[in-house]
Amino acid sequence: MKTVIHRGNTRGFADHGWLQSYHTFSFAGYYNPERIHFGALRVLNDDTVKGGMGFGAHPHDNMEIVSIPLSGALEHKDNTGRHKIINQHDVQIMSAGKGIQHSEFNASKTETVKFLQIWLFPKVKDIQPRYDQKTFDPADRHNKLQLVVAPEESEETLWINQDAWFSLGQFDKGQTLTYSPKLKDNGAYLLVLSGKVKVGDEILDSRDAIAVSDYDKLDLSVQEDASFLLMDIPMVA
Q: For the residues 67-81, what does the mean pLDDT come to?
């Protein structure tokens, strides 16, 4: 098993006044040759946007983009005519495919919004751009993994154009979990959102992460009540 630890305080950081953004991987003005991507995982940004502010219309292509609001709500618009609000407990996925333009703004004029934005390289390039979102009940992740993104089309999850699975967990102190990859050669990327989790011999605090490859199973034990995102990802970009 190969592991790499990404401590929360080692991430790139950009403060634009209206936006505070932590970058796990090289992005915009942050460049780290040792953090370009992890397999198909290209971007993991941890963003806070002030009320009434956001990202104006900008293009993407051939990227799977997942947005997960942690608090507050995002307002999404794109050039297909779609206009949606993404709330806490929602997950949004957008396949940029052969090209799309979209904007993301804080849906509130006064409250901040905190969200994760994650980019994965696609399995199939130049598909028709598409967008989907779904609300997930947080009770369904209490002391278990709640699958939210998967490569199979289903009413229970969001479909992604990649052999990747995203799960959210909310675990009580003392709980344990063993996780095995969905596909033999996939890796795992675990981001602790709150609390404290032990993975193997490593203790991960809030916003710490571990990248794991060449593994058969991953043993987790919860040291303090914790929430986390676990991504099961192809190691070929």
A: 93
